[in-house]
Design goal:
- By secondary structure, this protein is of the alpha/beta class.
- The chain contains 11 helices and 10 strands.
- The strands form 3 sheets. It has a 6-stranded mixed sheet with strand order 7-6-8-5-4-9, sandwiched between helices. A two-stranded parallel sheet has the order 1-2. It has a two-stranded parallel sheet with strand order 3-10.
- 38% of the residues are buried.
- Residues 1-279 form the Phosphate acetyl/butaryl transferase domain.
- Belongs to the phosphate acetyltransferase and butyryltransferase family.
Length: 289
Amino acid sequence: AQPIVIGDEAEIMAQLQELGYKSDFLHIVDPARFDRRDEYADELYRLRQRKGLTLPEARERLRHRRYFGPMMVHMGDADGLVGGLLHHFSETVRPALQIIGLEAGAKRVAGLYMMVMQSEVLFFADPVINIDPTAQEVAEIAMQTANMARAFDVEPRVAMLSFSTFGGSDNPQAVKMRHATELVRAADPDLVVEGEMQADLALQPETLSEAYPFAQLGGRAIVLIFPDLGSANIAYRLVNALAGAEAVGPILMGLDKPVHLMPPNSTVEQIAQLAAIAVVDAQIRESVA
């Protein structure tokens, strides 16, 4: 992969020199000196002219990396984007949606974290984007996450999580996850999915089969789908802090090209991991195109 760094070329070169690196391993793109900036501005204006954007405003926005990066991907000058280190996630996702757009068949963007344990990898969704998704939205998030697991050669077993298990409560939150499970089964009959269910049962197959012999999970859940952003976000942070799992992400799903997010406290290793995921994501998309 060829890393591309967007920013002021003089500042980037000074930082590389200070760190003792040469610049031959990356490609620096300075938006202020980019030879296709007028072409980029014309295209951004074309995309957003009926959304209130003027051509001068398009030129101004392309001075900022959060707009210039998605335009590089849209224009074919980059295959994917890893961003957000210095901005709120929404400030990275919104330009990507406006410029790159949703992939065919997707109705929304969702996010996941890969929780890397000593002996397994779990997928948590959605701790990033959708605050209180409907049953239909949860079902789509579950199928997106299952597809992402398959992309990493992991066969997904999907648990639709709740405080209730198999009809134990008629609370709307429990009913939502129950209905979402039904929607996933109808849309993808071959996907192993079970719910609604409590989280400990999803991770303890022997206890699950003993208490609920009709359950169809068939083993320890790999994909954990939470009822809302709050529960998913709390869960991944607790597992990261208490169990020492490495949280890789956020990995975005639903966009037409690879775009992934860097949390503000990202380490160099985490940024490299996200870049590698973007590369794999781009290669998979190219292979099925």
